[in-house]
Write a structure and sequence with these properties.
By secondary structure, the chain is an alpha/beta fold. The protein is about 45% helix and about 10% strand.
Length: about 525
């Protein structure tokens, strides 16, 4: 009897074990984080940190040292030359507000992407790594006009995985065959929502097609030339390298943006940088705890600098903050702020997500970057956004459309407009309610972004690259994918049928005309007789 029971228990145990996903042995993973923008880096390092915590051996090539990483199984190859230049050399990115988004897109294709890629491939530390003979199971690269870097996957013998800090942009969607319908998905650099008017759809389609045309006909050929220069012994062609992407992670989530028609190997990991709230620095913690009327957090992100606001706009913020009952925490990159009010705390660096997690925070004043807006929504904090360039206009258009934020035009920044925007959000509870509703939706995930990312990386490794996930769209030409050849044949067949029918009818009419004429002539002859 006892033996029978033991046998049953063992059988049940083996069945349960069989239902559990088999563990993936610790893999060697190479992460390439080329961007000097801190926001881009933070997303990439969030992905690398998740893989480290899952027990994998991770090597990270980036401009910065990796913070908050578990001991062991981690190596940083720091290329400081890629990082932020000295403050005296750093450009004022507020000037991009006077630049069209198409020009910013041009800069992405011709500067922001290619220059870091070349700097990495030319760097002595990277050359040393490439000549070391090391092998990696997976190579993870940021998808941001960095296609030449995808050649590192074949070089190191690993599966190619990419991550996109801008979400499901056109150039990342192209890699895995994800559809990008301009009818309801706005271009990354346009301030449209998924509910577009006819002319918005017209502009969206026009910009999208021009972007794709430039990407395919100008940008990719330049990347291909670089690919041949840096990977002369590659067995895969440049096009085959692009088609070899096994997995694409995107920094968004449907609850925070809009539903997208993803290919199976395109996975949302929006918010992967968000960690459980940590204890705040003592001075910030005390300042927030003692703010009886609440706190407003103000940050223009890592690339834009609060200290670079024109003097009149900075003074406008100072004067508005002076009249508020709430305390203000301002990420301000100088030691002093002219005429700083007593209810304003300034610091050059802030633990942003930890601050937004504090229950006293009522409002986030932001530039509208995807990193900050995601963290704000995660913690259920409404926002006032001042978009400057890139996807910031898109993110704030989404905020206004969804009802959790107000867009404030940079050109019209003055005491009146700033005060009105702040008052609107603080006095209308619907903004906070909407932000908290979206927070509930976003947090309702089976695994969360970090565990989701780890699962899919390990899935690709377990299944030899998981070709079963790959859409056949990546191997189709523009003509084949859009069925232009099929439609051309359909039109040719339709025209042939119409022409044939026309000819038959014409012949019939001609024949009927001859018969009638013969009959008419016969009757006339009989009459004359």
């Amino acid at each position: 009897m006892l033996g029978t029971r033991i046998g049953v228990y063992l059988a049940v145990g083996f069945v349960l074990l069989g239902c559990i996903t088999p563990p993936t042995a610790a893999a060697r993973i190479l992460g390439i984080l080329p961007s000097d923008g801190r926001s881009h880096y933070i997303i990439g390092v969030g992905l690398m940190r998740a893989l480290l915590q899952a027990g994998h051996d991770v090597t990270i090539v980036s401009p910065y040292a990796t913070p908050d990483t578990p001991p062991g199984r981690h190596r940083d190859i720091i290329l400081p030359e890629l990082g932020e230049p000295l403050d005296v050399q750093k450009p004022n990115h507020f000037e991009f507000k006077n630049t069209s988004n198409l020009m910013v897109l041009y800069l992405v294709y011709n500067e922001f992407g290619p220059f870091p890629s070349q700097a990495i491939l030319n760097h002595p530390k990277m050359i040393e790594l490439m000549e070391s003979g090391e092998r990696f199971d997976a190579v993870i690269v940021e998808s941001f006009a960095t296609e030449v870097l995808y050649g590192l996957a074949e070089h190191f013998g690993g599966h190619l995985i990419v991550f996109a800090t801008f979400g499901a942009s056109m150039w990342t969607s192209e890699l895995v065959g994800t559809p990008y319908p301009y009818s309801y998905i706005p271009h990354t650099f346009l301030s449209f929502t998924n509910d577009m008017s006819f002319w918005q759809r017209f502009a969206n389609a026009l910009v999208g097609h021009l972007d794709k045309l430039y990407y395919r006909c100008v940008f990719l050929p330049k990347q291909e030339a670089m690919f041949h220069r840096y990977f002369p012994n590659a067995k895969l062609t440049f096009q085959q390298t692009l088609e070899s992407v096994r997995l694409a992670f995107v920094n968004q989530h449907f609850s925070l943006s809009y539903p997208h028609p993803y290919a199976p190997n395109m996975v949302e990991i929006g918010g992967i940088q968000i960690q459980p709230p940590k204890k705040l620095p003592v001075d910030i913690q005390r300042y927030m705890d003692e703010s009886s009327d609440g706190v407003i957090y103000f940050s223009m992100g890592s690339i834009l600098k609060g200290r670079n606001f024109p003097e009149e706009k900075r003074a406008a913020f100072v004067n508005v903050f002076r009249g508020l009952k709430e305390n203000v925490i301002w990420k301000y990159e100088n030691d002093s702020l002219p005429n700083k009010p007593p209810n304003v705390l300034i610091k050059s660096w802030m633990p942003q997500s930890d601050i937004l997690a504090h229950p006293k925070v009522k409002l986030f004043i932001t530039h509208g970057g995807l990193l900050g807006t995601t963290e704000s929504l995660y913690h259920g904090v409404p926002m006032v956004g001042i978009p400057i360039f890139g996807d910031q206009e898109l993110n704030m258009a989404r905020a206004e459309h969804a009802g959790y934020g107000v867009k404030l035009a940079y050109e019209t920044l003055n005491e009146e407009t700033i005060s009105a925007a702040i008052k609107k959000v603080l006095t209308d509870p619907s903004f906070t309610e909407r932000a908290q509703l979206i927070s509930e939706r976003y947090r309702d995930q089976p695994l969360g972004p970090a565990k989701t990312a780890v699962y899919w990386v390990e899935y690709v490794l377990r299944h030899g690259g998981a070709p079963q996930l790959q859409s056949p769209a990546v191997r189709l030409s523009f003509i084949e994918y859009n069925l232009l050849d099929v439609y051309a044949v359909m039109i040719a067949i339709a025209l042939s049928v119409l022409i044939g029918m026309g000819a038959a009818i014409k012949a019939l009419l001609r024949r009927l005309g001859i018969v009638n004429r013969v009959h008419h002539d016969s009757k006339r002859r009989k009459k004359n007789q």
